[in-house]
Fold these 3 entries.
Entry 1:
Amino acid sequence: MKRSLFWRTYGVLLAALLITIAIFTGVLAASRRQGLQDSYEAEVRMQAREVAEYMANLQSLSYVQRNTTMRYVLLSKIKEIYRKYNADIWIVSYDSGTVQYLDSSWKTIESIATDAVKEQLSIIQTGQEIRKEGLFPELGDQIVTIGVPWLYDEDYVVGAVLLHIPMKDLHIGIRSVLRQILPMAALSLALGTVLAFFLARSQIRPIKEITGAVREFSKGDLTRRVNVRGAGELEELGDSINRMAEELSRLEDSRRSFVANVSHELRSPLTCMRGYVQAMQDGTIGAEDMPRYLGIVMDETNRLTDLVCDLLDLSRLESGKFPLTLAPFDMNELLRRNLINFEPRIDEKHIEVAAELGDAPLYVMADANRINQVVSNIIDNAIKFMNGPANRLTLRAEAAGKDVRVTILNNGEDIAQKDLPYIFERFYKADKAHTAGQGTGLGLSICQRIMKQHGSLITCRSGGGETAFEFTLPAAEAPSAPGSAGTAPET
């Protein structure tokens, strides 16, 4: 059985904590060990310097040998160093151009004149200190020699103090260092374990909250909301899921409303046609009245055909099975033809038309038939809702950089500001939008999807008694064969 996300997260945090503490402990132990070794070696070096200070007021070893008190004090110091540090002291004197060695027992050692020794003594003679491993092979390879100058009158080197100490005595054992560090490391690990537990739980809690909400959504309950606070990205995720739930809830309401509206749009003409046809069959409608009622049936049939065509167009647009045929055409010509097509309805409502279109062609690269559908839908919508005494419809096309901007304005009924963001949505309730009570509202949704296929969008603004729809298309050069690709569609 798979472990829960909490235990996996907790395990990862513990592993990271353990690795971090192990690395930190190792680095700290190595650093501490090196520091202790350096400190111990500095302490040993200080002992050699103290012996050199004893000799500082002496010009030669012969004076020390004659002065019993001085020799006793010096030998006591050397023996103390040997007992405490297991280090042997040699006193080296440069008398009469020769090198004389005395060990810690104050016995003279025969002159050792190897090249390596001479080189190191010459360094000390310049006033510097030395540290050399295996300088005197007769003492062993694992002996470290520390040499400090013996000064007379603080500026004249008359000899050297050589301290010999086994290398192992300078080394600090790692175990002794770990004894100091491990208790703190264990305490840190214990504290980190507790903190990791609460951290893992705090991280998992919002994930559980989100998981529970999504599970409810999958069951169809869109009323559940995610309540996550102070979790950074998870809080943003929770807010996004809440917005998604709101959108889904509204979409579900719109879908139900859409189905109800479509059902009504289908049922009303079907009921009407069925009633008239039955009346004709049973003779209720006389032969002289049949042409008029057949006209009504034909109008209802056309209404159903338009509705079905809109639904099919929308379905194909959403599925991507509505390919575009891009070619340059004159946008001014397309707008003029649409005005001619709507001329009867324009005259019926006494609408004043302002066609702000240039005399020169204004070519765009698009699918002429689909753009004609967009323009026709927008003009139809505008005419439908202009019922005032001074109706005015304005069509404008103008160059805008590399694009052509098309604007269609009317002074009809305003669209409520709360409805503006939703008027292009397929499932928005028709009676809340600009098309309230006038069909299913598929026209604007189809227009928006056509423009999205062209890489553009329709925008709408409304207020102050004026409503404007606007979209842009890429400008194009005049077609090489006018009358073919450059011809606007017939309306």
Entry 2:
Amino acid sequence: MILVTGGAGFIGANFVLDWLAIHDEPVINLDKLTYAGNPETLQSLQADTRHTLVQGDIGDTALVSQLLTQHQPRAVVNFAAESHVDRSIHGPGEFIQTNIVGTFNLLESVRGYWQMLPADQKEAFRFLHVSTDEVYGSLKKDDPAFTETSHIEPNSPYSASKAASDHLVRAWHHTYGLPVLTTNCSNNYGPYHFPEKLIPLMIVNALAGKALPVYGDGQQIRDWLYVKDHCSAIRRVLEAGRLGEIYNVGGWNEKANLDIVQTVCALLDELRPRLDAKPYRDQITYVTDRPGHDRRYAIDARKLEQELGWKPAETFESGIRKTVQWYLDHPDWVAHVQSGAYRDWVQKQYASGASDAGH
């Protein structure tokens, strides 16, 4: 049994789906089911007894302690986080509460549980904390990529709150001996991505005939990682990572935002041409850059490859084609996310006050 937090969000849900496709080991899935936690993503697991979805907050120590005691997981994989930079600029308080205070409370609940385990289970237990390359700050054009020993220099309320959570995880290992692992990933993309982030937003807006907004000059560079590659990296780190270590997870795909948008447009031209036969790139518009926008991120993932033998399976070209095709094939999922219809399901499902629902 493993406990996954934030397992109805984009990366967490992909991890749960992939885990249960590969393993028979059950998953307890704790998710707050805020706007980005979508149980429809997990619909294929509705009748699967290996999966239990629990609506709750990682900061709820009573609930987390109850789940740990009841289900006796051998590992906790922590995806739970507020993760959107723009939202953090407009409302930083939620990011401080979830990413810092929530992580602290989760660590304390897990520490209490871990300390009471029998010696053999205590030694085998793992707490894997999923973080981001944004904690390292921004790179100049010719700077070497971020490694696990790069300075921590966050520039947004989001990345600062994630950096703080990483420090807490490290401290709980060094102070209390909690067996932790941390992964810092680059920009993820792929199926089930909430359409406020760049790639799904561009796909959805393009198909709707809306403007494709690009910040500033569009030359902000990111390393792009297909979400299923990220999930395989987390499985590998959980399986064999060295305790207390950080592992950077990247796709070796540095691309400027404008290039990403143009690639999406070209794929849509091929797979779903506009009725007027004009190119989707005509919909691109430039908007004022956001405050403190980091210019470049890049991940050096050699440690993960050298120590644990992990490499991404997808190139950007193969991954982005799969992603665009997935959105074309799943218009209902997109429509429900945009309309908020999935939240009606959450309200109905949990209106009775039940905190536990097999899904």
Entry 3:
Amino acid sequence: MKRIDDLLSEIEKKKQKLSELGRLSSVTKQNLDDWYKIELTYSSNAIEGNTLSRAETALVVDKGLTVAGKSIQEHLEASNHAQAWEWIINRVSKNNYIFRENDLLELHQIILRRIDETNAGKYRNVPVRIAGSRVILPNPVKVSNLMKVYFEWLLGEHNNSVLRACDAHYKLVSIHPFTDGNGRTARLVMNLLLLSSGYPPIIVRKEDRHEYLTSLETAQLGGALDKYYQLMLEGLSRSLDIYLEATGAKIQVDKKLLKMGELAKITGESVPTIRYWVKMGLLPVTGETKGGYQLFTRELVKRVDKIRELQREKRLSLEEIAQELS
């Protein structure tokens, strides 16, 4: 696991390189904004249980079409989140924009528009629990005051704008000020703050859902925030790579080969799973150590993600996935 300081240093180097390359063209920037609108909408809603695929999300958002077999709420969650992203892009484009409490309530109102008009843009007045979690959330009587303290903290001095954005997300979901839409709103707030500070947004990927929720719960129960920071900073580093690639810059890739156990650890898969996929021909072996350990390139991390995506979204068998990948 990379140290938090190392990840922050890596992020700053990439951001500096992006700054040196100059402004993105208006066409490239618009393409990136449009891509992130769909990707953030898909991933953020998927974490909360929305079953629209990435392609279906694009149809709903870009074409205004309905998808057979999906609920009205799932359609509204997609269109609302996309509108919330556009709201953010509009706000951060203004000079000297400062995110305040009224902005948070307006953002939440967009997220729950036509889904729960009674509670949209309003702090909760009822107790709430997170399903399957041992975390005890604040009493509703305390929410209003906790949010005042939250914004005093947010508008205060901070040493690092990236950690400020990550902390803003963590603190908001820990207060859980709304009856619904807390996670989606908190992720949008984090990304709004990142954009305001000159960084790209973080995509919390669907496949990282378990690690993401577990890292939050660990901290909320009194543990360290390290795992949470690591997940967020790795996401930000990936986004910087996307922006750098959009400029035509070459990304330096660590060419160090991975042992099977290392590949399993990075991807979150078990060693027996990786070994079986190698046997099936899904993961090519690059070489062996003197001790006989198989070695793999880091590019296979993306292939492992692709295998899982094909299993989830297309429900392909391993034999079918082997054909698809070839």
